[in-house]
Design a protein that fits this description.
Length: about 500
């Protein structure tokens, strides 16, 4: 025996058997090595995965989609609208398919036997469409003036290679055509014939590819005689205002002509569907004549409207006058407004010397008037058909003199407690243009004011608090009256 073979046999015997002594004999037992029996998942390939997943099928609802991959598939998961799992399929010999009964976008997550996870392309499923063809004609009436009406069609969901077959009484007339907008003009039509069109659609995802149009039945009675009525824009027009009339045609064709008349006289610029005039008078009669261009065997192509008799609301002029009705001696004067043609909700704006001073009421109480003040009131009327909505009363001159009542020595306590914190200048209720000067005991001016703006709060014009003490004021009321006195501040 060769040495190499002997060594090999010895090695195999040493690893496969062991001798155990049992009594005086030896038993040969197999020798096993320790093995790892823990189950391990095959690692998933997340990088360098060359598998390509594919989803096929048409886009119509109810279609069967098929998933495939370039490597053997372990499982698939069908996903709807990117988020919802609608089905899962484990390893199988048959194709991985799914019937899409709901419209939306689908794709498949594929796990291969080698551990790759991939997403397929997406397919968007759409609902089935219903092909429709609608035919029409300018007239379904046959007469000597219009013996051969024409028909056209409007298709929906017809596809890009649709064909059309015109029919009369369900019998094909003429060849298949590819453009149903080209007029179909059969000859020899008579009363009772029925015209239809059959469309063969080439669109995708449709309920059926062959559909019939609506039928049009031929008649020979000239029943579509034209007529016209008129409408006006304003049921209560004001005298002198522009009134707009509109013609409402029936069976006038696609481009009728019009002529408007006022008292049977053709109106200038009255040859359109609308007519506007601001020259109408009470009792005028407006009519419209329409000339039809419809080729429908009409007995007459002319129709005249019933007359519209003009009724106008006369114009009115709002008026307002004011008078003083009461005087509170030395305090106030009350004025009252009298109005005409002001409507149901008039507005009032009172003024003193042209400056707004009160509003909202026909009564106004004026305070601190001086001789020569002018009182007026502006009225805004909401009445219909006015010559002007806004009018102003004639001014009333105030001649009442409010006597000057000088005050005695004053004191006030501007400490911010809300009691006696300010000092009112004597005589300001009568002299709104008074000039006031206040000085301290050293003769320094601490406050000055022209006109009654606000009461003195014990501060200088610069906003600095004046200390407690006696202050002296000089007030020039007007060109002839001056008053002086003292006022004391206590803090």
């Amino acid at each position: 025996m060769r040495p190499g073979i002997a060594v090999t046999l010895f090695f195999l015997l040493f690893n496969m058997v062991a001798l155990c002594k049992a009594g005086n004999s030896y038993v040969v037992k197999p020798v096993t090595t320790q093995q790892d029996t823990t189950k391990k998942d095959r690692p998933k390939k997340t990088n360098a995965c060359n598998t390509i997943g594919n989803l096929t099928g048409n886009t119509c609802i109810g279609s069967t989609l098929t998933a495939s991959a370039t490597d053997p598939i372990e499982s698939v998961e069908w996903i709807y609208e990117n988020t919802t799992t609608v089905a899962k399929q484990a390893a199988q010999n048959t194709p991985y398919t799914f019937k899409a009964d709901i419209a939306g976008k689908y794709f498949v997550k594929i796990v291969t036997k080698a551990g790759c996870e991939i997403n397929s392309n997406a397919i968007t499923i759409t609902n089935l469409k219903v092909p429709v063809i609608t035919i029409s004609t300018r007239s379904n009436i046959i007469c000597a003036e219009y013996p051969n009406p024409s028909f056209t069609g409007v298709p929906t969901y017809n596809g890009d290679r649709a064909t059309y077959q015109w029919k009369v009484n369900h019998i094909n007339v003429g060849p298949l055509v590819t453009d149903v907008s080209i007029p179909f003009s059969p000859t020899g039509l008579k009363k009772g014939d029925e015209v239809t069109c059959e469309m063969t659609s080439t669109d995708v995802c449709i309920t059926t590819n062959v559909v019939q149009s609506n039928p049009i039945r031929i008649d020979d009675i000239p029943a579509e005689n034209p007529s016209v009525s008129i409408e006006r824009s304003d049921t209560k027009p004001c005298a002198g205002s522009a009134v707009v009339f509109t013609a409402i045609p029936v069976n006038g064709g696609d481009a009728p002509d019009y002529q408007w008349y006022v008292n049977l006289v053709a109106a200038p610029n009255g040859n359109a569907k609308t007519f506007t005039s601001s020259q109408l008078n009470e009792g005028d009669r407006v009519t419209c004549t329409m000339y039809s261009n419809a080729k429908v065997c009409q007995a007459s192509t002319t129709a005249a409207s019933l007359p519209y008799t003009v009724t106008l609301i006369p114009l009115v002029t709002p008026k307002i006058s004011i008078t003083p009705v009461s005087v509170e001696a030395g305090v106030s004067i009350t004025y009252k407004a009298t109005i005409e043609n002001a409507g149901t909700s008039p507005l009032y704006q009172w003024q003193i010397n042209g400056v707004n001073a009160g509003s909202g009421s026909d009564t106004f109480i004026a305070y601190k008037l001086v001789p020569g003040d002018l009182i007026t009131c502006v009225l805004t009327s909401n009445a219909d058909c006015t010559t002007s909505d806004i009018v102003t009363s004639d001014p009333v001159v105030n001649n009442a003199t409010i006597p000057f009542r000088p005050t005695t020595a004053n004191l006030f306590t501007p400490n911010g407690d809300g009691v006696n914190d300010t000092w009112s200048f004597p005589g300001v209720d009568a002299f709104r243009n008074a000039k006031v000067r206040v000085y301290n005991r050293y003769g320094q001016q601490v406050f000055h004011s022209t006109g009654y703006v606000e009461e003195w709060n014990g501060k200088t014009n610069a906003g600095k608090q004046c200390p407690s003490g006696v202050y002296y004021y000089f007030i020039n009321l007007d060109q002839t009256q001056t008053t002086a006195g003292s006022v004391t501040i206590i803090r």
